[in-house]
Amino acid sequence: MAIPASIKIKNGVLPDAPGVYLMKDAKGKVIYVGKASSLKRRVSSYFQRPSDDRISQMVREIRRIDYLVKPTAIEALILEANLIKHYFPPYNIKDKDNKSFLYLVITKEEFPKPLLVRGSDLGDDATNRYKAVFGPYTSPRSLRAALDLIRKAIPWSMCEPGQPKPCFYRHLNLCPGVCDGTISKKDYAKIIRDLIRFFDGKKDVVMKTFVQEMRVAAKEKRYEDAATLRDRIHALEHIRDIAVLKREDDDVDRIREGEAPVDLYGRIEGYDISNISGTSSVASMVVFEDGAPVKQEYRTFRIRSVPGSNDVASIRETLMRRFRNPWRHPDLLLIDGGKPQVNAGTSVIRELELGIPVVGLAKGPKRKKDELVCDKNNLEICIACGKSLPLLVAVRDEAHRFAVAYHRRLRGRKMLES
Question: Is the whole-model pTM more than 0.90?
């Protein structure tokens, strides 16, 4: 089905380019804002087979479609969030309290950090608590992918100063050196300034600043600084990040063909605790991305602070230690256990203001059925996890296998030493 002739389209045509589209009703009110790697492809899909009753109702109300073309999908992602915040369109805002969305915040501290926070954890005083707040973002996966790409041009730090050695990201030039003290507070403040400008939609301003600073550095014969700025300019110029939105476009194709979209993309981390009679407690962390294991990123932990057998306390220790490391953050945490273990994981995520959903898989009363444990206030996550239960079971089983294998190695080593 083509777009009805009764609906007016800006300039009479939708371009095959990244950008943001605005659906308007008969009164000219913006009722929906969306982003796309191809405006033509995405907008046309709404009129072929709406994915649910809510979208069907929205389509019936559309009378005009406006759009803004952007050079990259990252800029479309940022513009979408800024427009949703401006217009608060009814078909974007599923919950009146806006708790299901993700926000990007910049902390207020000596060396500020960008953090992802759920709307439910943002608080009414967010503008006072944080240096800057951006969002809401409708796609956590897209936001995290965008941050990974932006960091190549604007390398921030998640470290605390005064560390004994440089962090992993320092060696990749993605951390400017807060950990080992190689960057001053003043210079780091410029990085955070540029990051804020970028998420304000002022990429051109950031680019102009980099060019000016590079020329000054070259004139003053600070050739290493000039080369660093040249590389950052190149990274900004070549962010061709269609992958940021590609997954959503893949879902559009599946809906069009009558196939249900996969609900859990991105990075899932699974955790399990293993011990026998309360001895040699260990934890495992396994990683799945887009449904497949990434074994080179598996990790194990020897439990240090928890005496005896206490899975709840062990989960808390494991996650606190895990998030002290500058590893890429997951889109979902899966814990092998029931409500107590999930609550322990959730408390860590809230304490660290990470905004990552936590779910658990528990054995039923007769240990014959896997029961999903999730936050009933976040129905979107619960529904997606329920539809992708076989994947979560695979992640849980792999975490269990990895934990048991590590535990056996430790016990075997102890027996040899005794």
Answer: no
